């Protein structure tokens, strides 16, 4: 009998992780507080009060970025920022990073140095130190970073913990990184068609392109919360798109939620991009990934402690039987499709190649 062959596309990224996790089994380590399944793993140190959080994220050429459109210095910054974002999403401070670099022969020493200038800038911005790694030859540029962060155990905020009645809140604005990607893909196409004569005018899209190429982890937000005595019940960063992350919070917390699409903050430039492509900007805001903003469940009695300019209330948590729903700007209430960006699930076109 031949071995079964299930294409990974059939189970998707999260389905695959579930099956691999089942092989590892339940961890028996009493110091492990959170293993697979949150933004970062959490384990206790011998003093019993301090915990470390640990997370890894990779950026691969042709999957996450196109070298034609990505300055090496930006790439270095982004590689650190996306990892710091997962540490921040546990409400912890980043401390140390290691990096594994796979370098194809087309990368020069000078390009690697430019990449490290970006790494250094991000390490300075977020207060962490790169302490080692590994370097190997590869067929395409591969970057994998691990970041360790630190917190007191009682400061950690998980994906679970949201309760019916909590407010669903988000920092910053959404959909801009996806809008930036749309513009960059359009530019790449024009460059390919028109060759070196092509003179791009990216000035009207500065903000969205920056959101795509140079995302920021919201360490500033969790530090501000600490100052104000704010402690959300549940927290996640938005890497795969708002809809997908709302589903994660609800599944882990055993809740439902209602999202008000009209309340989702969207930058003017993001609207301009959606108009340019004759697309619905709500789709960008709900399903566009890589904004790295924070999504959190706030008990209403903490509302007044927050700076009102630093976040938006975009919905509320409900009992589980309500499911996860969205109220469209026209007023209809419909189930919210979780389909954010999932590796292996997308159509194999050029655009999907550069998401996630
Ligand atoms: P995020 O989008 O926050 O980076 P992911 O969706 O990548 O989170 O991962 C979800 C969870 O699955 C995390 O706890 C992560 O550590 C874990 N995970 C991802 N890939 C693997 C793998 N191949 N083996 C074990 N755990 C994994
Ligand atoms: Mg995350």
UniProtKB/TrEMBL annotation:
ATP binds at residues 116, 133-134, 159, 239. It catalyses: thiamine phosphate + ATP = thiamine diphosphate + ADP. It is an enzyme of class 2 (transferase). Mg(2+) 3 binds at residues 39, 86, 237. GO terms for molecular function: ATP binding; magnesium ion binding; thiamine-phosphate kinase activity. It comes from the Bacteria. Residues 163-304 form the PurM-like C-terminal domain. Substrate binds at residues 64, 290, 341. InterPro entries: PurM-like_C_dom, PurM-like_C_sf, PurM-like_N, PurM-like_N_sf, ThiL-like. Belongs to the thiamine-monophosphate kinase family. PANTHER family: THIAMINE-MONOPHOSPHATE KINASE. This is Thiamine-monophosphate kinase. It comes from Rhodothermus marinus (Rhodothermus obamensis).
